[in-house]
Each structure stands twice: as C-alpha cells, then as structure tokens.
Amino acid sequence: MSLEYKVVEISMVTDEEIEKTLNQWTAEGWQFDTMQFAMRDSSKRPSMAFVTFTRPMSDDAASTD
User: Which of 2, 25, 52, 56 has the fewest other C-beta atoms within 10 Å?
Assistant: First the structure.
C-alpha cells in the first residue's frame, strides 16, 4: 500500500496553532506522522514547525504514477 504525504508549515509556533493544525488535518482523514522544529540560535523557542501527515493513497492516485 502506498502512502500519500502532507507537510504543513507552522510559522507561528504556539500550542494553539499546533493544536489547530493537528485537529484540522486529522479531521480530513490524515494521520499524524512527525513534527520537526526549526530553531534560532538567539531564541529558545522554535521559529517554525513542520508537521507531517500520511494517509493511504487512493487507487486512482496510485494508478496515475
């Protein structure tokens, strides 16, 4: 089974934005996979976050490759 991937960039990294992103995409059928943070040397808070989701690729999408 092939997987389809979705990467979402969060530029305002707060708990509310992370929660909003997770709830939005899981409600659309995506499954949370990973979260990576981009850090700045001058700050202890992340400057960006990348959230990765997966879902099984539909038969139609898989057959076009």
Answer: 2
Structural domain of 23: 3-63
Rounded to whole angstroms, the Cα distance separating 14 from 57 reads 31
Could you tell me whether strands 31-39 and 46-56 are parallel, antiparallel, or unpaired per DSSP bridges? antiparallel
pTM of the model: 0.82
Tens-place pLDDT, residues 35-47: 999 998 888 889 9
Buried b / exposed e across 9-32, counting CB within 10 Å, b at 16+? ebeeeeeeeeeebbeebeeeebee
SS3 60: helix
Whole-angstrom Cα distance, residue 50 to residue 54?
13
Tokens standing for 59?
């038969």
